[in-house]
Specification:
The chain has 2 helices and 10 strands; from the N terminus they run αββββββαββββ. It is mainly β. The strands form 2 sheets. Strands 1, 2, 3, 6, 7, 8, 9 and 10 form an 8-stranded antiparallel β-sheet that branches. Strand 7 (about 85-95) and strand 8 form a beta hairpin.
Length: about 140
């Protein structure tokens, strides 16, 4: 098996919002987990510092983008609203139908729903974006 076979092709994925809702998205950005670090200078030594982990003060933000659609997908998405608390968000990265990696967000809140500009002169697909603030992405 070559090294190329070990790398994941990130274009095939499923998103589960809790145990009941499964949605498709075209793009997911902001998959990260960050922390805050504090620094204390050592007394009298300018080149020596001590680092420590500070409590988190800001959530991480992930954006889920999809084509604005009609039909079954649209009716499921119509139940999503700003302020909705989402538990157990799972992003399954797949290759040839089998799950290779799973990313999890334990708890998040839907903070923003936005739509691309409406322009009758442009032939672009309309995009709907969901923004979730959360406590970090974990790899399972």
């Amino acid at each position: 098996m070559s090294r190329k076979d070990d790398l994941l092709n990130a274009y095939e994925f499923e998103v589960h919002l809790g145990p009941l809702i499964s949605l498709s998205f075209s793009k997911i950005s902001g998959l990260e987990r960050s922390g805050e670090i504090g620094v204390i200078g050592s007394g009298g030594e300018n080149d020596s510092m001590h680092f420590y982990k500070k409590p988190r003060r800001r959530p991480d933000v992930t954006r889920f983008e999809t084509g604005w659609s009609t039909g079954a997908m649209s009716s499921i998405q119509s139940f999503l609203f700003e302020g909705l608390v989402l538990n157990n968000i799972m992003i399954q990265i797949k290759r040839n139908g089998s799950t290779k990696k799973t990313l999890c967000i334990d708890r998040g809140i839907l903070t923003k729903i936005s739509y691309s500009d409406l322009d009758a002169m442009d032939g672009k697909i309309l995009i709907k974006t969901l923004e979730i603030q959360h406590n970090g992405v974990k790899e399972k």
